[in-house]
Structure formats: C-alpha cells, structure tokens
C-alpha cells in the first residue's frame, strides 16, 4: 500500500512539473531578430548576451494614438515579444486601445492569456461572457480597472462624450486573438474604410454635427 501511495505521489509530482511554466534560466533573454527561421521552438530564441542593450527593454509603440477612422471608430495596438524584444520569456504583452466617441471593440478572445484592462481616459463599458452565456459588464471611468478571464469573449464600448484611451496588460508574450466578426463575416475592410471617409466628407460639407455611426451595442 505504501508503495502504491508513493508511486501516486511521484506521478502527480511529475504531472505538475510537466504542466508548469518553466522559470527563466538566465536574467535576460531579449528576442533575437533573425532572417529566415530554420529552428521552430515554442517562443523565440535569445539575443546574444554581448549585444543586449537597454533599448531592448524600451518600447515607444504605445505612445501614439491609433487610427480610429474606421467603421467601429476604434484601434487596438498589441505589443508582444515579436515587437518588443525585452518581453521574451517574461510572459507579458501590453496593448493600447483608442476609442472615438461611440467607438467599439467587437467581441474577441485571447486563447493564451487573461487581460487587465485599465482606463486611462474617458468612460468605457467593458464586459465578457462566460461559458454559461452569462454576461458580466461594468461602466469604467478614468483610473478604474477590469479583468477579462483567459479565452473568454470580451468587448469594450466608449459611452462617454470624448475619445477614450485604455491600456492593457496580458499574461502571455503571445496572447493571440480570435475575432468573432472576422471569423463569421467576410468583411472587406478597405471598402468599409473608404465608405466611412466618403460619409465623413459629406457630413463635413453639410456643416452639421451629424455623427457618421452610432454603435451603442455589443
């Protein structure tokens, strides 16, 4: 009996080790930017330590607002270890979401990460749906935080009277994204953007304050 228990404990320990994320075996591992990839691994190879500099751990990609001149009046910029070498092996990604008035980020999920959602400016509705189809949503104001659990569909909508800015932290260096609208509908984004520009131009010529699109829905 003791032998059986010992075997079970040993097996369970091995399973835990196999399913745990590996800790870093070195202090630094910025992504090595290579040409043609010949070795395929789960992650990215490390840069030569002799060539690592402080600039590998700095990114300016989120310092500028994204282009919200589109159908949904929104822009999402995700920075992963591909774009930000210093994130490699740290299990982190960062993102910036810009929302014009009535701007919407449609339902999507990140199959490999959870997301911490921080409102830097404006008023935003953020929500997600669990596997029982139960919705959870809150109105967030500047300085407030919401969390989207891993791989659950979530969205956000600007319900304020000014553009909103949101910053997110995701606990994966490559969170991935699955957009439901893109998966279901064959959307010609260039045609839509062209239509938006034409409508905006017409509205401007008429000299009124008509909003081109109003999207207070999920």
Automatic annotation (TrEMBL):
<keyword id="KW-0325">Glycoprotein</keyword>
<dbReference type="InterPro" id="IPR011051">
    <property type="entry name" value="RmlC_Cupin_sf"/>
</dbReference>
<comment type="similarity">
    <text>Belongs to the germin family.</text>
</comment>
<dbReference type="GO" id="GO:0030145">
    <property type="term" value="F:manganese ion binding"/>
</dbReference>
<dbReference type="Pfam" id="PF00190">
    <property type="entry name" value="Cupin_1"/>
</dbReference>
<dbReference type="InterPro" id="IPR006045">
    <property type="entry name" value="Cupin_1"/>
</dbReference>
<keyword id="KW-1015">Disulfide bond</keyword>
<feature type="signal peptide">
    <location>
        <begin position="1"/>
        <end position="20"/>
    </location>
</feature>
<feature type="binding site">
    <location>
        <position position="115"/>
    </location>
    <ligand>
        <name>Mn(2+)</name>
    </ligand>
</feature>
<feature type="binding site">
    <location>
        <position position="110"/>
    </location>
    <ligand>
        <name>Mn(2+)</name>
    </ligand>
</feature>
<feature type="binding site">
    <location>
        <position position="154"/>
    </location>
    <ligand>
        <name>Mn(2+)</name>
    </ligand>
</feature>
<feature type="binding site">
    <location>
        <position position="110"/>
    </location>
    <ligand>
        <name>oxalate</name>
    </ligand>
</feature>
<keyword id="KW-0964">Secreted</keyword>
<dbReference type="InterPro" id="IPR001929">
    <property type="entry name" value="Germin"/>
</dbReference>
<dbReference type="InterPro" id="IPR014710">
    <property type="entry name" value="RmlC-like_jellyroll"/>
</dbReference>
<dbReference type="GO" id="GO:0048046">
    <property type="term" value="C:apoplast"/>
</dbReference>
<dbReference type="GO" id="GO:0010497">
    <property type="term" value="P:plasmodesmata-mediated intercellular transport"/>
</dbReference>
<dbReference type="GO" id="GO:2000280">
    <property type="term" value="P:regulation of root development"/>
</dbReference>
<dbReference type="InterPro" id="IPR019780">
    <property type="entry name" value="Germin_Mn-BS"/>
</dbReference>
<keyword id="KW-0052">Apoplast</keyword>
<dbReference type="GO" id="GO:0009506">
    <property type="term" value="C:plasmodesma"/>
</dbReference>
<keyword id="KW-0732">Signal</keyword>
<feature type="domain" description="Cupin type-1">
    <location>
        <begin position="69"/>
        <end position="193"/>
    </location>
</feature>
<keyword id="KW-0464">Manganese</keyword>
<protein>
    <recommendedName>
        <fullName>Germin-like protein</fullName>
    </recommendedName>
</protein>
<keyword id="KW-0479">Metal-binding</keyword>
<feature type="binding site">
    <location>
        <position position="108"/>
    </location>
    <ligand>
        <name>Mn(2+)</name>
    </ligand>
</feature>
<feature type="binding site">
    <location>
        <position position="115"/>
    </location>
    <ligand>
        <name>oxalate</name>
    </ligand>
</feature>
<feature type="disulfide bond">
    <location>
        <begin position="29"/>
        <end position="46"/>
    </location>
</feature>
